[in-house]
Amino acid sequence: MRCLVRPTSDRSPFESDGFEFAEGSLSDLASLRKAVAGTDAVFHLAGVTKALRKQTLWDVNETGSRLLAQACADSETPPTLVAVSSLAAGGPLVKLQPGEDVPQLYRLGRYRVRRETDPTSPVSNYGRSKLAGERAITAFADRIPISIVRPPIVIGPGDRDGFEMFRMISSMSVHLVPGWWPTLFSVIHVEDLAQTLATVACHGERCSPRTGSLDEQHRTPSSEYGQGVYFVSDPTTVTYAELGKMIGRAIGKTKVRCIQVPPRIVRATALINQGMSYLRRRPHILGVDKSREAIATGWACDPGKLQRAGDLRLTSDLQTRLNQTALWYREHGWL
């Protein structure tokens, strides 16, 4: 196993597992060519989720992805490229159509979870940059085997963004829920995601150059739309309030107070955070861009495509995975 790392990257978590390291950058094509040389499969997990400048998102998530695909295509024996995108690239919940039959687990009010064949509709610059990265990669689909995996919220050891939910519930027994309305969410544990990525690399469906194409006349998906693209998540969908209560149980809190935060307060808080980010030169998890996602209709997806193919590798249910994540935070002094 070879990992692409920056010269300044902390390698200590991986050194005991016998990993090989290749120093480089997503902006350096020569280093990428060297990193992918002789490999059978490349897992593209690098990316930027928040940034002080909008252009940084595109530089990494689009241009960096294109250069990596180029490096794979230039290889003497091109490897399979499995790119980890995001549910944010697909977009939030989809409005139900008249007569549409959807299981109750995958619907809430007038909305349902997102599927691979739904036209994309990202609401944030982050989501749009990840979608641009997908399209940059699939442009090489006639030269290398490519699959794209879009995870939702990822939990597990070492996750700092998700830790904020655990920290607030642990310290104050409070869970902040953006918006006035209940919204559905999907979650995946990092170990389940890793197992699924390996399975997709071995025998997953591959993209075509028209994977993300729409019929220009009717603005409807082409026959190849969504080919080689997978949503991966725990089959259980929960509201954001339910997720907070499940985290409370994982921590050992008998009662968690869920406080609904009006959208205008979310936006105002994000604006303040953004200003502080510029002063500190460090992006905040809830900046203006992420606030657009926070007040959307919900973030849930249907993992049915992976399930039908037998490629969804889940070893534990969602509550167990939250319990394991909370235990890791405790054992490492985070909680």
Going across the biggest sheet, name each strand in turn.
3-4-8-15
Continuous helix count: 12
Strand content: 15-25%
The major β-sheet equals: 4 strands, parallel
Indicate how many domains the architecture comprises. Answer: 1
Name the CATH architecture. Answer: 3-Layer(aba) Sandwich
| Gap from first CA to last CA | 32 Å
Write the CATH fold name: Rossmann fold
The global form is globular
Spans of at least 5 consecutive residues whose pLDDT stays below 50 are none
Q: From the helix content, strand content and strand pairing, which structural class follows? A: alpha/beta
What is the count of β-strands? Answer: 18
The CATH homologous superfamily is named NAD(P)-binding Rossmann-like Domain
Alpha carbon gyration radius: 20 Å
Main CATH class? Alpha Beta
Average of per-residue pLDDT values: 92
Q: Which percent range fits the helix content?
A: 40-55%
Spell out the helices and strands N to C.
EHEHEHEHEEEHEEHEEEHEEEEHEHHEHH
Provide structural commentary.
The chain has one domain (38-331): NAD(P)-binding Rossmann-like Domain (Rossmann fold, 3-Layer(aba) Sandwich). Helix 3 (54-74) links the parallel strand 3 and strand 4 (80-84). It has 12 helices and 18 strands. The protein has 335 residues and is α/β, with parallel strands linked by helices. The strands form 7 sheets. The chain has a 4-stranded parallel beta sheet, with helices on both faces. Strands 5-7-6 form a 3-stranded antiparallel beta sheet, with no helix packed on it. The chain is globular and about 60 Å long. Helix 3 (54-74) packs parallel to helix 5 (125-138), helix 6 crosses helix 8 (240-251) and helix 9 (263-280) packs antiparallel against helix 10.
